Amino acid sequence: MSTFPIVFDKSRGDYFNACLQAGEPIRGSWQATEALVLAGACQSFAVARCFPQPAGNELEAVGAAIAVYAELCSTLASRSYDASYGETVIAVVSLVDGRRHVAPVRGFKRRGV
Predict the structure, then answer these.
(1) How much is the pTM?
(2) How far, in Å, CA of 88 to CA of 25, rounded?
(3) Distances from the Cα of 60 to the Cαs of 35, 47, 100, in angstroms?
(4) I want to staple 75 with a disulfide (CB 3.0 to 4.6 A). Which of 6, 13, 81, 104 is the partner?
(5) What is residue 8's predicted lDDT score, i.e. its pLDDT?
C-alpha cells in the first residue's frame, strides 16, 4: 500500500480556487504539496465544469481523464512523447467496473496510455 501525507492550507486552496474561477495566473512557491493542492483544486474545478448536475461518480470519471493527461504530460517531460503521440491526441476515457479504459481516436502512434 502506498501512502502520502496531506498538508492543506485553507488560504492557499481558496487562492487556487479563486484564480481558476477568474482565469487568473497562479503564483507562488511550488513544493510537492503545493502542486498536489493545485491538482486537487483543478480536479474539483473540472468536476464542477464538466458535471453541473452531479449524478454519481464524477470525481472518479474526471480522475480517470486527469490520469491520462498526467501520463501525456509525463511523456513530454521525459521527452518520449513524440515517439508515441502526434501533435494532438484525442481519446475517449471511461470507467468500467472501476478500471480506466482509453479508446484512442487520433494521435496515437502506439497503444498504452
Answers:
(1) 0.78
(2) 24
(3) 20, 9, 10
(4) 81
(5) 85
